[in-house]
Design goal:
With 288 residues, the chain is of the alpha+beta class. It has seven helices and eight strands. The model has no long low-confidence stretch (mean pLDDT 81).
């Protein structure tokens, strides 16, 4: 009797435990189902739903909390804010010079075309599209300009690249907000040619400066010679009019020599006639 009672109690306890476990399992499944039935779209994002039965739905869901059927549907969320991308490409100019151009491109998906983008490109649409269309547009635009024009008309080149790139991006439902040329370099041959040209221009300017300086020196010598000729002419006229002018000059020269010798510490014995110090006699006087 005691054994039968123990067996009955054991079976009753197992039934109670199994019944409680079922409730826990149902509760957990219900909580998981409710949790997976909602998804959140953050600010600056939009979503489309993919269904196992119908594929991508045409509806577009904005920011906030939305409902979905677990396992049968799941959201594909897109960032619709402008994002920067750096794309570069080597290309040739109109005068057959190699040019390396790097662009910073701001792009975002067309929010009204998200279902089409999902079906044709996917979430990584920019990585699939931008390198190819940027390369195509750069080769088309750069080929219209010479290497020197790419530098002097940089703003015009950037505007033309943006205009053509916008048209190409529309074909893939991508909106282009801005395009900027961040780097523009040329090949080694062109860079070396530019350096040689600059050196030649500097040499030409230096040669021109030397020529101009020679002309100025020549003009200076001409003016100086004319001045000396004028002085000589004036002296000749002065001597012709008054022979005493030479005697006056001789006296001034004697004063200068005497002053120089007086300041010297050495003793010098020289003939007065050779130093024009014999002012008592007049060598210019005509003998009787």
């Amino acid at each position: 009797m005691a054994g039968k009672d123990l067996a009955g109690r054991t079976q009753k306890m197992i039934k109670q435990l199994s019944g409680g476990g079922g409730v826990v399992a149902v509760g957990a499944a219900l909580f998981f189902g409710i949790k997976e039935s909602f998804y959140n779209v953050e600010g600056g994002h939009k979503a489309v739903l993919f269904s196992r039965f119908g594929g991508v739905k045409p509806d577009i869901y904005g920011e906030g909390l939305h409902f979905r059927v677990p396992w049968f549907q799941w959201p594909i969320i897109y960032n619709i804010r402008s994002r920067p991308s750096k794309v570069g490409s080597p290309t040739g100019s109109k005068d057959l010079q190699m040019v390396n151009i790097n662009l910073r491109v701001l792009t975002r998906p067309d929010a009204t075309k998200l279902p089409q983008i999902t079906q044709t490109l996917g979430v990584d649409y920019d990585e699939k599209v931008l390198p190819s269309i940027v390369n195509e547009v750069l080769k088309s635009v750069v080929a219209k300009f010479n290497a020197s024009q790419l530098i002097t008309q940089r703003s015009q080149v950037s505007l033309l690249i943006k205009r053509e790139l916008e048209q190409r991006a529309k074909d893939f439902n991508i909106i282009l907000d801005d395009v900027a040329i961040t780097d523009l370099t040329f090949g080694r041959e062109y860079t070396a040619a530019v350096e040689r040209k600059q050196i030649a221009q500097q040499d030409a300017q230096r040669a021109q400066y030397i020529v101009e300086r020679a002309k100025q020196d020549r003009q200076h010598k001409i003016v100086q010679a004319e001045g000396e000729a004028e002085i000589a002419r004036t002296l000749g006229e002065a001597i012709a009019k008054n022979p005493g002018f030479l005697k006056l000059r001789r006296i001034r020269a004697a004063q200068t020599i005497a002053q120089t010798m007086a300041q010297s510490q050495n003793k010098i014995y020289l003939e007065a006639d050779s130093l024009m110090l014999n002012v008592s006699e007049d060598p210019y006087k005509t003998p009787a």
